[in-house]
Amino acid sequence: MSTDASARPETVPVARRRRIAGRAPARPAPGAAVHNVSAATAALLGLVGIGAVLHEPVLIPPLAASAALVHCAPALPLAQPRSVVVGHMLGAAAGYAMAAVGGGSAWVAALAAGVTLALTTLARTPHSPACATAVVIVLQAPAPGRFVPLLLGATVLLVLTAWSAHRVRRGAPKYPVYWW
Hints:
Blueprint: H1 14-21, H2 30-54, H3 61-72, H4 81-102, H5 106-122, H6 128-140, H7 144-168
């Protein structure tokens, strides 16, 4: 702890403390909000369409959360391509491993989510929806030979749609901030 008087909260001016503490992000312009939501929705509808053609569900709840991150919060580390793709793959690996060891209970699903969080942290690929991917795998036991390639393709598709959507809209924030 610093002994410098200027570092103590009571000596920092109120206006500066508010800046330091942060604030909720500014409300996006209506056009930007519509663009972000419509781009995310289009990507999710694309996943549903692919699933309908393949007769296999491709849209799972964690991918909807990932779409929200990459389209509406593109600067966050959780939204970067490395985190989206690798995070979900680590979540799948943890989910299948934990299901093999402990079965398909809610207890095992919770442990799989925790293991996924640890793995994504260690791999520097933070992506909270990946924890939900592990839970889905433990509780639903999808066949890995079909599920993992579909999951990989879906995450790549989400990243590419976010990349293209942010290129189309003038003044949009840069996405991705980094690829790897």
